[in-house]
Design brief:
By secondary structure, this protein is α/β, with parallel strands linked by helices. The chain folds into 2 domains: 4-162 and 345-367, Glycogen Phosphorylase B (Rossmann fold, 3-Layer(aba) Sandwich), CATH 3.40.50.2000; 168-341, Glycogen Phosphorylase B (Rossmann fold, 3-Layer(aba) Sandwich). Helix content is 45%, strand content 15%. It has helices at 13-29, 45-51, 75-93, 106-116, 131-136, 164-167, 171-182, 201-216, 250-256, 266-275, 290-300, 314-325, 328-341, 346-359, 364-367, and strands spanning 4-8, 34-39, 55-58, 97-100, 120-124, 143-145, 155-157, 190-194, 220-224, 241-244, 259-262, 279-281, 304-306.
Length: 368
């Protein structure tokens, strides 16, 4: 019988996408694996998990307030209900192992697995671990991280599981086809700009402000502005400048590019290093600073640059980035350094550990 795996990775794309990449890798490693995803009715998983062909079991969400507020009073009762629901899923599926990626569903999943003596594997994508995974890491010795140096008990670096169409991408082999797909010239440098699924206004302003100079110097731009950007006015110039509201074929975007300008979310960093695409990383200017911590090791290895959101401007792009875009030898060195900073086999490596832990579950043979 195959291993029964319950994956708790709901809420945001940063939790769901690596969870789905792991699910795919588990089935490639052992097609008999039984996979159930744990989620809530409010997360993106309600759309992404069924669309990917996996079973989704819903439990009540338990947001944990980060400050002392009256909402804290309701947490214990809500957590008990969520843990009970998660335990029911573990029992119904005959779970051999629970894998948590953090977020609202992970904490009830971890506590339910501990209650039912189901082995736990924790995966933390960011350099700064979230509360759920800080709890989970105390309940198991199987703790995997997406970043070198993440401080959790028993932490081991594996990288972040990413989609096979990205992990298996050969940028150089696909470059001409990808550029033709977007209407780009085959022999001019390409800057790929993306602020994530919703875009990034500060990146858009800076690049559009430098657009005339970039185009005049022979640099092509593939710019994903985001669905909320509205009408975009691009200054004229001889080199192509392609504007897209969104891009569902990121593999083609990466293959067409020589360099990227982007935010520094954990998944973005993982994908760019997996395919060996150097980048200027512009961390979000708010939050706990984790995006800068995600990108700094890549920059220190020579695979990219980090610039503060407040320092990014059209002038910075013209003065600091434009010379790099015309230096093919430097780009090649940076591409090699970027590729050496990531692990495109993170999905397979994590899947191997999960299956190993599940097969070793005490009493598994008797249960079957």
């Amino acid at each position: 019988m195959g291993v029964s795996v319950v994956i708790a990775g709901g809420g945001t794309g940063g939790h769901i996408l690596p969870a789905l990449a792991l699910a795919d890798a588990l089935l490639r490693a052992d097609p008999a694996t039984k996979i159930t995803c744990l989620g809530t009715e409010h997360g993106l998983e309600t759309r992404l998990v069924p669309m990917s062909g996996y079973d989704l079991a819903l439990i009540p969400p338990v947001p944990l307030p980060r400050r002392i507020t009256p909402a804290l009073l309701s947490v214990p009762a809500r957590m008990l209900r969520a843990v009970g629901a998660a335990a029911g899923v573990l029992e119904r599926t005959g779970a051999d192992v629970l894998v948590g990626f953090g977020g609202y569903v992970a904490t009830p999943g971890y506590l339910a697995a501990r209650r039912r003596r189901v082995p736990i594997v924790v995966h933390e994508a960011n350099y700064l671990p979230g509360l759920a995974n800080r709890i989970g890491a105390r309940l198991t010795s199987y703790v995997c991280t997406g970043q070198q140096g993440t401080r959790l008990p028993h932490a081991r670096y594996t990288g972040i599981p990413i989609r096979q169409e990205i992990a298996g991408l050969d940028r150089l082999a696909l470059a001409d086809k990808a550029r033709a797909h977007f209407g780009l010239e085959p022999d001019l440098p390409v800057l790929f700009v993306t602020g994530g699924s919703q875009g990034a206004a500060s990146l858009n302003r800076a690049v559009l402000g430098a657009a005339a100079t970039l185009r005049a110097s022979g640099v092509q731009v593939l710019h994903v502005v985001g669905p909320r950007a509205g009408e975009v006015d691009v200054p004229p110039g001889p080199a192509p400048y392609v504007v897209l509201p969104y891009l569902d074929r990121m593999d083609l975007g990466y293959a067409a590019a020589d360099f990227a300008l982007c935010r520094a979310g954990a998944m973005t960093c993982a994908e760019l290093t997996a395919v060996g695409l150097p980048a200027v990383y512009v961390p979000l200017p708010h939050g706990n600073g984790e995006q800068r911590l995600n990108a700094e090791p890549i920059a220190q290895a020579g695979g990219g640059l980090v610039v503060a959101d407040a320092d990014l401007s059209a002038e910075w792009i013209v003065q600091a980035l434009l010379p790099i875009l015309h230096d093919s030898a430097r780009i090649a060195v940076m591409a090699s350094a970027a590729a050496a900073s990531g692990n495109r086999d993170a999905d397979a490596d994590l899947a191997a550990l999960v299956l190993q832990v599940g097969r070793r579950r005490p009493g598994r043979r008797r249960k079957r």
